[in-house]
Amino acid sequence: MKKSQLSEYLYFILNKSFKFTTVFRSSILLGLLISSNLSLNAQSIIPIFNGSFEKDRHKASQTPFGWYPYGDPKTSSPDIHSRYYTYFDVTQLPSDGDRFLSMVTRNDWSTEGICQFIETPMLTNGKYRLMMDLSTSNDFQSRLKNDTLAKFTNPARLEIWGYNRSQELDSLLAVTATLNHTDWKTYSLILTVPMQINDVCIVVSYPEGTVSPKPGNVLIDNIQNLEEIYAHPALPTDPNLLQEKSLEDLANIIEKLEPELISFSETSSMLKVFLSVPAVEKALKMQTVQNYIYNSERIDIIQHIKIMDAIGAKKLADIVRRAFRSYIYPEQATQEDVDFFSSVDAIYQQASTEKSLLKSKLQFLEAHKESFLEEIKTQLY
């Protein structure tokens, strides 16, 4: 930046009251922080092979390529449908690509399922996310064992099972709600793993509490890779517990998450603003504004003024702005600035800067609490 340009910029910072329009405020917030080189350790991704069933030809009673049957394949084989050819009067199109799968429940308690060996096992006490697209058909009909044509349109749901090969034990990892929609919806299932898991099974099941089994169906597509969920030690196991935290405790938790949150490109500008406040608190802590001005880099002071304005600490920002003019650029200081720093009121306000900044920070957090919690849940749970 040329010297003349820097001078004009400093003049703007020091003399404007920061009564921004909404658009201008947004642009300031978006450019508020210096980009960070911090990076989050890559989360573990466990590939799922042929999760969209594109490596198959359409065929009834066929286990998809790369998967093996759950249960007895003679009585419980799913069906592979295509965009161009479906079975059993199913009318849906795939949600992804050209293929999708159907699995059914029956009136004799027999169901269908598919399993896959995963080369990278899920680890004991880990948490993983499994996403897939699900639907159900209101037109599905097929013949029962007695050759009676029946509608397979009763409610059903999916269960996710894990299998440990060395111990020859299985464990129920997640269950969907009962499906009642014919449009495709993406389900995000959280798998809590009690032991090492080598195989994942996706099994159609009856609604909870079923006494008399009835024929039903579930359509499946776009099974995505397993993703290990990042577990930060500062976060409670249950994300809903964050709602119960006091503003002070919640502020402390969010500040501990700063390296992770700042590394996400999706982190909002408002949350980045909040994450930048501790740097201002540290700079102003236990010293007068005058000492802060003398002990800080000028570019940092300008940055801090922006942050204080952004969180609504207007009075404190004004004190720092006046001090900057008075002590660093006296040729730009007004008589009002000089008079201010010779008054008793100035001494009192300088002494209470730390308390003033904390109050503004918590008010800012309270105003944006719901959106901040939603970001944390989305990115770190």
Descriptive account of the structure:
The chain folds into two domains: 187 residues, no CATH class; 183 residues, Jelly Rolls. It starts with a helix and ends with a helix. It is an alpha+beta fold. β9 and β10 form a beta hairpin. The protein has eleven helices and 14 strands. The relative contact order is 0.13. Strands 1, 3, 4, 6, 11, 13 and 14 form a seven-stranded antiparallel sheet that branches. A five-stranded antiparallel sheet has the order 2-5-12-9-10, with no helix packed on it.
Question: What is the rounded distance between the termini?
Answer: 42 Å
| Envelope shape | elongated
In total, the number of domains comes to: 2
Q: What's the helix-strand series? A: HHEEEEEEEEEEEEEEHHHHHHHHH
Radius of gyration: 30 Å
Q: Level of helix content?
A: 25-40%
Most strands sheet: 7 strands, antiparallel
Structural class: alpha+beta
Number of helices: 11
By DSSP, the count of extended strands is 14
Poorly predicted segments = 1-13, 16-42
Percentage of β-strand residues: 15-25%
What number is the mean pLDDT? 83
Sum this structure up briefly.
This protein is an alpha+beta fold.
List keywords for this structure.
single chain; alpha+beta; Jelly Rolls; 2 domains; five-stranded antiparallel beta sheet; 14 strands; 21% strand; elongated
What is the secondary structure topology, with strand pairs?
Elements: H1 3-15, H2 22-30, E1 45-46, E2 68-69, E3 79-82, E4 99-105, E5 113-122, E6 127-135, E7 141-143, E8 149-151, E9 157-164, E10 169-175, E11 185-192, E12 197-205, E13 216-221, E14 226-228, H3 247-256, H4 258-263, H5 269-284, H6 289-295, H7 298-310, H8 314-328, H9 335-340, H10 344-351, H11 353-380
Antiparallel strand pairs: 1-14, 2-5, 3-4, 4-13, 5-12, 6-11, 6-13, 6-14, 7-8, 9-10, 9-12
